[in-house]
């Protein structure tokens, strides 16, 4: 698992490093610039959430086909997934390009300069969405075939270009937040080109096998649908939480944006482990090797727990030092310290939640983790209002609503997965015994 996860984690580290550096550059433009980029990030994340309808299902079905050694079926699922992700990317870009005022206006930002920067950033970054979503599908396809090192190299190249262009476009050409967006768009285009060159040069990945079909799209959506609904609801709740946060001013949005970048320390590492776990469990489920499947799940939990323990310790004991990397304003630092200390409590539970969700996805039972996630993610809204306004906790009440829900989701999902695995093993054992008696 470590061997398979390391390239994905390496890609995560590159992305984490880029997010850090990008936010440092944007932070030098001031808290207003961070607030503007943070506001737009909700809309971009919503596009990625819609993409989960296709991406996750395509990745799981491809790994099942790879485990069953069915090359043609694997290629067909990837090709069908590419078509779906391209459509979502183009549709998302259209909405962002033609309705920037309405989208930014939804947040009712009071600072005109923040509104101006948010609209400018949005209209530039939208051009990269078709490439960004297609690249996500390419990455899932390569990883499902065990080519994690290849996808790492291609994505890392794009990240390095982004790092190089950021200071040049933001400050060298004095383009501000629009320069940061343009650097990201160029990086997405380079990664897209890198995947195409790799596929056409070696032809060892059966992506262009004729086999796009509505039946396979139905298979993909059956698995990806619950995950997509979960992600869309998650982002919708995030947007509504942002509306609550804005009641205390735009500084709260900046704090959350920076805090999310710091939380990526945990998230990016967990993404690598969860991706490896999902690939391995998907292949083991396809080959019906349930003993190894259980061992893989436990190994993933242990790795994720160690990583989240490190990040949790950093957040709880060194919050202000971490926030000071990005901003120096006393108000932002004070709010940021509280954010990290509260969210630090949830990191261990989040690691269990992510690995268990990935394991459910690999079994093709994404509706299980999606149901748990939807219920307790939606609960954040009334809980945030109750804690922040009724009990008078302010912004800390919003942060605690996130932490409490993560604690419940992690605990519940791990128990449900072990019960589901026990049922699968019992069913398979019964089928095996039955066939032996018949023989």
Chain oligomer state: single chain
Counting DSSP E segments of at least 2 residues, the number of strands comes to 0
Radius of gyration: 22 Å
Number of helices: 17
Tell me the helix content: over 70%
Helices and strands: which structural class?
A: mainly alpha
Average residue pLDDT? 77
Distance from N terminus to C terminus (CA atoms, Å) equals 37 Å
* Low-pLDDT windows of residues: 435-439
Instruction: Determine the strand fraction and express it as a percent band.
Output: under 5%
Shape: globular
User: Major sheet, described briefly?
Assistant: none
Order of secondary-structure elements = HHHHHHHHHHHHHHHHH
Annotate the secondary structure layout.
Blueprint: H1 2-27, H2 31-67, H3 71-98, H4 100-105, H5 112-125, H6 129-144, H7 148-172, H8 177-202, H9 214-245, H10 251-286, H11 290-317, H12 319-323, H13 330-344, H14 347-362, H15 366-378, H16 380-390, H17 395-438
Helix pairs in contact: 1-7, 1-10, 2-3, 2-5, 2-6, 2-9, 2-10, 3-6, 3-9, 5-8, 6-7, 6-8, 7-8, 9-15, 9-16, 10-11, 10-13, 10-14, 11-13, 11-14, 13-17, 14-15, 14-17, 15-17, 16-17
